[in-house]
Amino acid sequence: MAGGLRVAVRVTPRGGRDGFAGVGHDADERPHLKLRVAAAPVDGEANDAVVQVLAKALGVPRSSVSIVGGTTAREKTVLIDGDPVKLVRLCQVLIAGKTK
């Protein structure tokens, strides 16, 4: 494995649908990906949905995506295993597609 990429994510559970919802910034102006998931934050269902949404959006296996921080919070840190340069490019494409 070439490394990976840590991504800050803000999740909206029970968001009506699963999907990428853009880019936001916290109070300190640090960027994060915004995700909506239809699942409720019960028994890890929302976390599973986060993994699924990110894996699908980035075209990586679910096993390459793991939540490494904030498992019980809306703000999460997600680790995506793989080539960090390729993953950054995939994230840029995802963001560019949402902002058009």
Would you count the extended β strands for me? 5
Tell me the helix content.
25-40%
How would a crystallographer describe the biggest sheet?
5 strands, mixed
Question: For this structure, what is the CATH homologous superfamily?
Answer: YggU-like
What's the CATH architecture name? 2-Layer Sandwich
- What is the CA-based Rg, rounded? 13 Å
Within the CATH hierarchy, at the fold level, what is the topology?
A: Conserved Hypothetical Protein Mth637, Chain: A
Roughly what fraction of the amino acids lie in strands? 25-35%
**SSE topology string:** EEEHEEH
What is the straight-line distance between the termini? 33 Å
The whole-number mean of residue pLDDT values reads 90
Number of continuous helical runs: 2
- Strand line-up across the major sheet: 2-3-1-5-4
The CATH class name reads: Alpha Beta
Residue stretches low in confidence (pLDDT < 50, at least 5 long) are: none
Structural class label: alpha+beta
Can you tell me the number of structural domains?
1
* Inertia-based shape: globular
Question: What does this 3D model show about the protein?
Answer:
The chain is α+β, with helices and mostly antiparallel strands and 100 residues long. It has a single domain, classed as 2-Layer Sandwich (Conserved Hypothetical Protein Mth637, Chain: A). 30% of the residues lie in helices and 34% in strands. It contains two helices and five strands, in the order βββαββα. The protein has a five-stranded mixed beta sheet with strand order 2-3-1-5-4, covered by helices on one side. Strand 4 and strand 5 form a beta hairpin. The longest helix has 16 residues. It starts with a strand and ends with a helix.
